[in-house]
């Protein structure tokens, strides 16, 4: 019997849905295994077992462990950077308000999620795997620094900042986020850090330090 077009379409969508579900399961399992064992010790066999798929299934979507980890980072952090990039063109408020908004997003989307654990893993494993640092630089860090430079230039152009320090040293803004990631891993059980308050305090100090004295 000839298969009807609608039946073929439904089956095709069903296969796509199953494929997407398997890929999702692999990415979720990869996150757990990488965070538990680190990049070097993680094995595709462990990821496949945790995802409930055959090891060969992973190769349908990812060339190797390196490309699987890259896909995990791109999916986890890429949308956050894109959201921050989208704030600048239409934001009409003060630079202080903009920086506080960015800080709030950094806290909510990174420090309060498992993305912070991925960042901690990159800090730990990056020196051993230069490609990992290079990938994270290209996909995340360079884009983030470009955003902060644009904010610094905007502040100077609007007469809000007397100094171009934020444009020259965009690392000033995310510095406390890195402190929070390291603190959380080592000392949070002794002295829990209020990360949102930390970032807000940092922004306040930064804005006051760079502001025009007559503003």
Automatic annotation (TrEMBL):
Coiled coil: none annotated. Keywords: DNA-binding, Transcription, Transcription regulation. The keyword DNA-binding applies. Residues 43-62 bind DNA. It comes from the Bacteria. Residues 20-80 form the HTH tetR-type domain. PANTHER family: HTH-TYPE TRANSCRIPTIONAL REGULATOR RUTR, HTH-TYPE TRANSCRIPTIONAL REGULATOR UIDR. This is TetR/AcrR family transcriptional regulator.
């Amino acid at each position: 019997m000839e298969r009807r077009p609608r039946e073929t379409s439904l089956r095709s969508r069903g296969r796509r849905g199953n494929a997407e579900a398997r890929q999702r399961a692999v990415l979720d399992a990869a996150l757990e295994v990488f965070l538990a064992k680190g990049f070097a010790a993680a094995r595709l066999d462990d990821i496949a077992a945790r995802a409930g798929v055959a090891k060969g299934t992973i190769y349908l979507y990812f060339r190797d462990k390196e490309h699987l980890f890259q896909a995990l980072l791109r999916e986890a952090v890429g949308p956050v950077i894109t959201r921050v990039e989208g704030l600048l063109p239409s934001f009409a408020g003060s630079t202080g308000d903009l920086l506080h908004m960015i800080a709030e997003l950094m806290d909510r989307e990174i420090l309060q999620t498992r993305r912070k654990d991925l960042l901690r893993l990159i800090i730990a494993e990056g020196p051993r795997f230069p490609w990992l640092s290079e990938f994270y630089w290209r996909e995340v860090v360079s884009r983030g620094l470009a955003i902060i430079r644009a904010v610094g230039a905007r502040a100077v152009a609007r007469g809000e900042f007397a100094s171009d320090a934020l444009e020259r040293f965009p690392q000033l803004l995310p510095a406390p986020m890195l402190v929070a990631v390291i603190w959380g891993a080592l000392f949070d059980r002794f002295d829990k850090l209020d990360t949102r308050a930390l970032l807000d305090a940092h922004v306040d100090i930064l804005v006051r330090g760079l502001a025009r004295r007559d503003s």
